[in-house]
Design a protein that fits this description.
Number of domains: 2
CATH superfamily of the largest domain: Radical SAM ThiC family, central domain
Helix content: 40-55%
Number of strands: 10
Order of helices and strands: HHHEEEHEHEHHEHHHHEHEHEHEHHHHH
Largest sheet: 8 strands, parallel, barrel
CATH class of the largest domain: Alpha Beta
Shape: globular
Structural class: alpha/beta
Strand order of the largest sheet: 3-4-5-6-7-8-9-10
Strand content: 5-15%
Number of helices: 19
Length: 427
């Protein structure tokens, strides 16, 4: 039977409950009707390229659990696609919801195809990077055909969502020059487009030809993740005029995408002090019409290289509490190097903790069930029960095993002074 819809949002508007929507319901505590209505409005996105045949779809947006993404990919200096596949497997092992390939060297298309074939979670890319890698041209020699040919290739490869920095317009560049920053542009995609715009004196090709981008995405059901090319890369630069100018443009582009039945996510900051996180979440939701919000961090201080998975988790938990739907993990290697597999695990766990803490705070239905089970196990000194509830059972077991108590039901921190053991028999 021929498919009677083009995209997930088109299906929802026609009242069609897709197989991908069924998969979303398997892991969420939301009603069938509510899911359908929110997908139709664009408040929930289900990135699901029809060429990603083994995809187990997940939803991102209002009323759903906060999702996390794992970035990976090779560079010129560290170029082992096998090592990156190991990171992808680790992401699956620790139940990450998405993987983004940010590769900028080597056989990028071959690696993308391998990811799509072997990884069943949603996969994202940044075609702007790959245009430079694929063509080998200096930035100013890239043509509009080059930009869009790369998007077509990624869509045909089965990529579920693509980051496109379409909101970094010449108007935003004027705002940037008027409101000078400490760290300028820190987005790789934003910097590439800025350079292209400056050297060619043209408007952002993805803004000027946005309808062409929408046609590609609709044809393959690719979700556009509207990138924050002017996200702040320093606490001093947060929530400034260029960031907000771009966000306003992203809101306008969101409505145009929805009119063409293309799903949208909005990418957000960046480096943001703690007291501005809530404001940033509310601004995005207001200006971008409640489209799903995908945030990097945010990192709440600039001074913790080597520990930025922690600065990110602090900001990410608060962001999720106030409406962020999707957290891009940050590893301890942020700002320093390409992350190792150990860095990746630290980033995943920090991000998962932040996402779950946010879900508890914003009252996602049944989010507290596992916390209840853990507390019950702790209250009865049920160590196996605690391990079963832990986000990382393996690490918990290793810690427990490394320091054995003389009395097996307690731990070496308190021993005979264990409050649970002393009080439990009396209550």
């Amino acid at each position: 039977m021929k498919q009677s819809y083009t995209t997930q949002i088109d299906a929802a508007r026609k009242g069609i409950f897709t197989p991908q929507m069924e998969q979303v319901l398997e892991h969420e505590s939301i009603s069938r009707q509510e899911l359908l209505e929110k997908v139709a409005k664009g408040h929930i996105a289900i990135p699901a390229n029809r060429n990603h045949l083994n995809l187990k779809a997940a939803g991102v947006g209002q009323g759903l659990k906060t999702k996390i993404n794992v970035n990976l990919g090779v560079s010129k200096d560290v170029c082992s696609f096998d090592a990156e596949m190991n990171k992808a497997q680790l992401a699956l092992d620790y139940k990450a919801d998405a993987v983004m390939d940010l590769s900028i060297s080597g056989d990028t298309e071959g690696f993308r195809k391998r990811l799509v074939e072997e990884v069943p979670v949603m996969i994202g890319t940044v075609p702007i990077y790959d245009t430079l890698t694929r063509t080998g041209k200096p930035t100013e020699e890239i043509t509009i055909e080059d930009w869009f040919e790369t998007v077509e290739i990624h869509a045909e490869n089965g990529i579920d969502f693509i980051t496109i920095h379409a909101g970094l317009t010449q108007k935003c560049v004027t705002s940037l020059r008027t409101n000078m920053r400490l760290c300028g542009i820190v987005s790789r995609g934003g910097a590439i487009l800025f350079e292209w715009m400056e050297k060619t004196k043209n408007e952002n090709p993805f803004y000027e030809h946005f309808d062409r981008l929408l046609d590609i995405c609709e044809a393959h059901d690719v979700c556009i993740s509207l990138g924050d090319g002017l996200r702040p890369g320093a606490i001093k630069d947060s929530t400034d005029a260029p960031q907000i100018e771009e966000l306003i443009t992203l809101g306008e582009l969101t409505k145009r995408a929805w009119e063409k039945n293309v799903q949208v996510m909005i990418e957000g900051p960046g480096h943001v002090p703690l007291h501005e996180v809530e404001m940033n979440m509310k601004l995005q939701k207001k200006l971008c019409h409640n489209a799903p919000f995908y945030v990097l961090g945010p990192l709440v201080t600039d001074i913790a290289p080597g520990y930025d998975h922690i600065t990110s988790a602090i900001g990410g938990a608060l962001a999720a509490m106030h409406g962020a739907d999707f957290l891009c993990y940050v590893t301890p290697a942020e700002h320093l190097r390409l992350p190792s597999i150990d860095d990746v695990k630290e980033g995943i766990m920090a991000s998962k903790i932040a996402a779950h803490a946010g879900d508890l705070a914003k009252g996602i239905k049944n989010a507290d069930v596992i916390d209840y089970k853990m507390s019950k196990a702790r209250g009865t000194l049920d160590w196996e029960g605690q391990f079963d509830c832990a986000m990382d059972p393996e690490k918990a077991r290793v810690y427990r095993k490394s320091s054995q108590p003389s009395e097996k039901d307690v731990c070496t921190m308190c021993g005979d002074f264990c409050a649970v053991k002393r009080v439990g028999a009396l209550l």
